[in-house]
Amino acid sequence: SGTVVTTASLAEDLRRRGRNNVVLSRNSTLGMPALPGPRHDHDELRVLYMGNIGRAQRLATAIDAVAAAAERGVRVHLRIVGSGAQLAPLRRYARRLGDQVSFIERIPHDEVIDQYAWADTVLVILRDWEAMKLTVPSKLYEVLQVGRHVSVSAAGETAEIVQQAQAGHAVAPQDPAALASLWLRLAADRRLLDIGCSGQEWIAAHDHPRDQARAVDALLRHLVAEP
């Protein structure tokens, strides 16, 4: 009778296909405090990925970007926090880079904020699949709320949100050279990492949990009231 989706692009796609009663309710973030800007007490660029390690992410792209940056004389430390089907092969693939790529398996929720505090920028990455253009990782909303710069390696709505929020930079998916060039730019001008309150402002305008609940409530009331 009705459909609730978590991305605006999927809602538009379903409506275009003739689906009625489609409501957007994003994956809201709760309880994450805003952090001050990143520290500038280290030379390396610290990149954090936190989430599922699977085929949809293709984190080999990020590892290749770390290698490309190293070839141009810039040290990038990529920290990968999480687990998934591709964890073991990804560990093997990253061995050539030594301590430039580190892994931490799943952590308790109360330790997540410490990982964000460590990072200069947070990687949100999806591979170059058509369906990924209609996908927004829920972790993106958390990063916006925390206030860290976002490095996006993805197309579609994920990249659009970060650009609209002025909360980071986006490059094409599965393009290690483009991702490396972005990280070289951030390492050369760390002022780009300080996004101020732009992420929180976007969340307040588009992703407040109360508004998401009201959207679903309105749909349910409409469907129940239909003859």
Search tags:
227 residues; six-stranded parallel beta sheet; two-stranded parallel sheet; 9 helices; 41% helix; globular
Describe this protein's structure.
This protein has 227 residues and is α/β, with parallel strands linked by helices. The protein is built from nine helices and eight strands. The protein has a six-stranded parallel sheet, with helices on both faces. A two-stranded parallel ribbon has the order 1-2. The protein is globular and about 65 Å long. The model has no long low-confidence stretch (mean pLDDT 94).
In angstroms, what is the radius of gyration?
18 Å
Estimate the strand proportion.
15-25%
Based on helices, strands and strand pairing, what is the structural class? alpha/beta
Q: What is the helix fraction of residues, given as a range?
A: 40-55%
Summarize this structure briefly.
The chain is an alpha/beta fold and 227 residues long.
List the helices and strands and how they pair.
Layout: E1 3-5, H1 8-16, E2 22-24, E3 45-50, H2 60-71, E4 76-81, H3 87-94, E5 101-104, H4 112-118, E6 121-125, H5 138-146, E7 149-153, H6 157-165, E8 168-171, H7 176-188, H8 198-206, H9 209-225
Helix pairs in contact: 2-7, 5-8
